[in-house]
Amino acid sequence: MKLRDIEIYLNRQQADFFQFAMCLSADEDISEKIIIDSEFLLLSEQRDEISLQLGSNQDNAGAFLRYCRRFIFSSVFRIARKNNLYQKPYAKRTEESAYWTLPMEQRAVLCLRHKLKLNKDEITEILSLTGTEYFNLLNLARESILKTAGSREHDLRETF
């Protein structure tokens, strides 16, 4: 694996990273800065691991790239939560308002599950949750959105 391979992979994932950051902060400039900071953390904190991967000809390159993706998602969440980067956007539709009334952890779970289509194991690892905490946050978020949006029965992916 070459450093260029890691760079190409991270560039291909930028849309997902940006979408996740926007679900947490709703500000393009802040989201972009969070992603850059997260990628810097990956390259600085994981220096030894990256060096080993670059010097290795093993078949675990795919696993390492998936690890990089999870690391960036996790860092984006930690930075947004630590710096309290929550900014509620102006929303005309009730469904959008319903989403932005949720706490950041619930928005993160909804985004990772319904927008980015990650599975439970990936989400619990990214957000450092137990399985029970994951299901509680997901159910609370779904119920809150339905309640706030007027209890209309429809697909949550359309709401989100």
Briefly summarize what is shown:
The protein has helices spanning 3-12, 14-25, 28-45, 47-55, 61-82, 94-100, 104-115, 120-127, 131-148, 156-159. The protein is mainly α and 160 residues long.
Describe it for me?
By secondary structure, the chain is mostly helical. The chain has 2 domains: 3-82, no CATH class; 94-159, Winged helix-like DNA-binding domain superfamily/Winged helix DNA-binding domain (Arc Repressor Mutant, subunit A). The protein is 75% helix and 0% strand. The protein contains 10 helices and no strands. The chain has helices spanning 3-12, 14-25, 28-45, 47-55, 61-82, 94-100, 104-115, 120-127, 131-148, 156-159. Helix 3 (28-45) crosses helix 5, helix 6 (94-100) runs antiparallel to helix 9 (131-148) and helix 7 crosses helix 9. The longest helix has 22 residues, at 61-82. The model has no long low-confidence stretch (mean pLDDT 83).
Quick check: average pLDDT? 83
* Helix/strand/pairing category: mainly alpha
Are there runs of 5+ residues with pLDDT below 50, and where?
none
Helix tally?
10
Q: Indicate how many domains the architecture comprises.
A: 2
Distance between the terminal alpha carbons, to the nearest Å? 38 Å
Number of strand elements: 0
Alpha-carbon Rg, integer:
17 Å
- Helix-strand string: HHHHHHHHHH
**Relative strand content:** under 5%
